[in-house]
Amino acid sequence: MPQHVVAVDIGTGSARAGVFDIRGQLLGKAEHPILMNRPRENHAEHDSEDIWSAVCISVRKAMEQSGAAPESVGAIGFDATCSLVVRDVDGGQISVSTGGERRFDTIVWLDHRALKEADFCTATKHPVMEHSGHFMSPEMEMPKLMWLKKKLPGTWMNTGYLFDLADFMTWKASGALARSRCTLTAKWNYLAHLDKGWQADFLEQIGLEDLQERGRLPDDTVAVGQSVGTLTKEAASAFGLTTGCHVSAGMVDAYAGALGTLGGAAHDPHKLERQLALIAGTSSCIVSFSRERKPSHGMWGPYYEAVLPESWLVEAGQSATGALLDHIVRMHAAGGEPTAAIHQRIVARIAQLRVEEGDNFGARIFVLPDFHGNRSPHADPHAVGGISGLTLDTSFDGLCALYWRTGVAIALGIRHILEQMRDYGYAPDTLHVAGGHVKNPVLMELYADATGCKVVVPKMNEAVLLGTAMAAAVSCGLHRDLPSAGLAMYPGGDVLLPNEDKRAIYDRDYRRLLAMYRHRAELETME
Predict the structure, then answer these.
(1) How confident is the model at residue 359 (pLDDT cuts 50, 70, 90)?
(2) How far is 89 from 216, CA to CA, in rounded Å?
(3) Within 10 A of 156 (CB to CB), how many other CB atoms are there?
(4) Structural contact between residues 429 and 453, judged by C-beta atoms closer than 8 angstroms
């Protein structure tokens, strides 16, 4: 009887693997970097074979560290960023790059080359837009596919397979062409709540009437927690596992994180609807579940059964958060390469300066954090950021002040999203935070104080891997269903409560943030 599962998380810069037991204990973990090609502004590309190699290395190292026997692993699951993998008619690599390099066959999620195509989709006002917050983001797959067909017609004519990255991994591992309900519903405008998920009239309207045939995209999808098959002999050998190991349906990384943080409440729908998952790293995603469909503007979804059965999921987010803090460090005269060490040094100095200067520290600096567009709540990928209150100060303390106020702006951006969610009938009162931001004391304090929410930090900060492990455990029968896996494998969390003495300060800063939005609009419309 299997006793373990392997979870693989493919992020923007690395692939990670973890080995878990049926109680959710992490027994071994490993990580390996992946290559990104940035040939021009707004273009970002991966090499899918490089990703596969990084995954193989990570799985083998994690297994070695765990001490688990290969035959004890019942399933392997994959989550990934919503990057687009393109393969030729023979399943080999084919270029998506304007540079023409064949190995760069994957358009990264954060790639914004398809802004015009996204605007075209939004302008159709097709009913599918009701499930994307009434707008199309260039981070979704349809605009990227439109761009590919228009700009690289040779690649399009020789395309034989199209995958969301998580689905590419399950295909590569099992040979199965099945696609996940999670990926297609969230990123491909597939409507899982209808008998026919693909909307042929929409595809025709945007010039992708040949999409299903070109990409070998099936009519039906596989739910999270189901198996798409077992490992091929080649994949089993590459991972150091057995051909009896099941391959769980793939997941979007943020949604795996939502399952990992909120899985402990999945058995109680009333409680679950008051909880939000905040998966915060390079970008930030907020995920909420509800039993009823709640249409909205400026948020992605609602998506039916994108994770949990008979449940709607809505996602909001910020396109650059950790990436924005990196940018601030990189652009400032006292900064440089944004390593973990310099972030720690800045955070430590901020703590000292706040003791010395109190609430006056950086108080005249105001940041509009839309440096990579505004995903939510404005749904404007063209939006730009701004900073008010700069002086000639190029000192390290000056960098710390700017970093602190950027953190305030990021947290207030979350508050802005929560305010809109409440307008659409959501009633969140608890934020479950996971990801890289958990390691940043500045952001963790601000998430509680600036939003006024209770913040829960999982005792094991591997929510994304854990959510993928939960789904894998269900796919091979180690747990009956996703709520059961959530109850059994969720580690619990530590609670941070907002400091009520800071409420007036952040209320005022929030009003200033809204004023900056108004001022930006005024500047951009001025004649």
Answers:
(1) very high
(2) 10
(3) 18
(4) yes
DSSP category for residue 37? B
pLDDT of the residue at 298: 85
Backbone phi and psi for residue 178, each to the nearest 5 degrees, phi listed first: -60, 145
Q: What is the 3-state secondary structure (H, E, C) of 148-189?
A: HHHHCHHHHHCEEEEEEHHHHHHHHHHCCCCCEHHHHHHHCC
Percent of the chain with pLDDT over 90: 93
Q: How far apart are CA 136 and CA 189, in angstroms?
A: 10
Measure the N-to-C terminal CA separation of the chain; round to a whole number of Å: 72
- What pLDDT score does 296 carry? 84
Amino acid at 18: G
Contacts of 521 (CB under 8 A, 6+ apart): none
DSSP three-state, residue 143:
helix
Per domain, the residue ranges of the chain are 4-249, 322-418+501-525
| 3-state SS assignment for residue 73 | strand
What local confidence, expressed as pLDDT, does residue 1 receive? Answer: 78
Nearest to 211 by CA among 136, 159, 152: 159
Residue 225 Rama label (left phi>0; alpha psi -120 to 50; beta): left
Q: What is the dihedral of CA 87, 91, 92, 95, to 10 degrees?
A: -10
Nearest to 432 by CA among 396, 407, 470, 464: 464
Alpha helices in 389-502 (DSSP H): 396-423, 441-451, 463-475, 482-489
Determine the 3-state secondary structure of 207 from DSSP: coil
Contact 281, 435 (CB under 8 A): yes
Residue whose structure tokens are 């963790």:
444
Other C-beta atoms closer than 10 Å to the C-beta of 222 total 24
Q: Are 405 and 411 in contact (CB under 8 A)?
A: no
E-strand ranges in 281-356 read 284-290, 300-304, 312-318
Q: How far apart are CA 117 and CA 126, in angstroms?
A: 14
Q: CA angle, 484 as apex, 276 and 196 as ends, to 5°?
A: 70
Fold (topology level) of 322-418+501-525: Methane Monooxygenase Hydroxylase; Chain G, domain 1 (1.20.58)
Rg (CA), the chain: 22
Angular region, 216: left φ>0, alpha ψ -120 to 50, beta rest: left
CA–CA separation, 71 and 283 (whole Å): 37
C-alpha 415/C-alpha 428 separation (Å) is 11
**CATH architecture for the domain at 4-249:** 2-Layer Sandwich (3.30)
The band of 381, judged by pLDDT with boundaries at 50, 70 and 90, is confident
What backbone torsions phi and psi does residue 136 show, to the nearest 5 degrees?
-110, 130
Global model pTM greater than 0.85: yes
How far apart, in whole angstroms, are the C-alpha atoms of residue 496 and residue 507? 19
Residue 417 · residue 376 · CB < 8 Å: yes
